[in-house]
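agent: user wants the structure for Imidazole glycerol phosphate synthase subunit HisH from Dictyoglomus turgidum. delegating to structure tool.
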Amino acid sequence: MVKALIVDYAAGNLFSIIKAFKYIGIDPIVSNNPKDWEKADLLVFPGQGNFSQAMLNLRNEEKDAIFRELLRKKPFLGICLGMQILFEESEEAPGVPGFGLFKGKVKKIPVNKIPHLGWNEVDLKRESTFFKNIPNRSFFYFVHSYYVDTKEDIIYGFTEYGIAFPSFIVKDNIIGVQFHPEKSSDKGVKFLSNVLEEIQKC
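agent: tool returned. relaying tokens verbatim.
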């Protein structure tokens, strides 16, 4: 059975993501201890909080170097904010660098009505086993005011809200989604199940 760990960075309520994993038969660990992170088969960085809070929390406790190293080798699922911190910087937190795993900037959505809140489509541009048996343009749940702007060859799906923004990225061991699978009903559950199934094959 996959050992899934939810990284606890003092962002608040993790009930939904814990419940989603339990629904598919996984009892996840919730921890801010790097020793636990190293033992996990899958690291999950949930979407609550903001860019500054996440990065400063990790750096204040001097865990960022360990986390960065694990990002290079351990299966990782970044949800919403958890995807955004993989990039270089964010307009949400000027002067606070991200992990810079990928080149690109997190920008504010250029529409009057934010946050982007509710159900929207994910338009897949490439096939992915993580979306196995999930039809293209399926609806997932979003809640965010910022999006990733990148030219890196990692984008597998887009969503439109004023602009077309990356909502699903993949690179080696890294999976990032702008939507919240834990709040996306049956499609979100299926996505999480697919992620776990692929990790079990490794």
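agent: one observation worth passing along. DSSP finds six helices and twelve strands in the chain.
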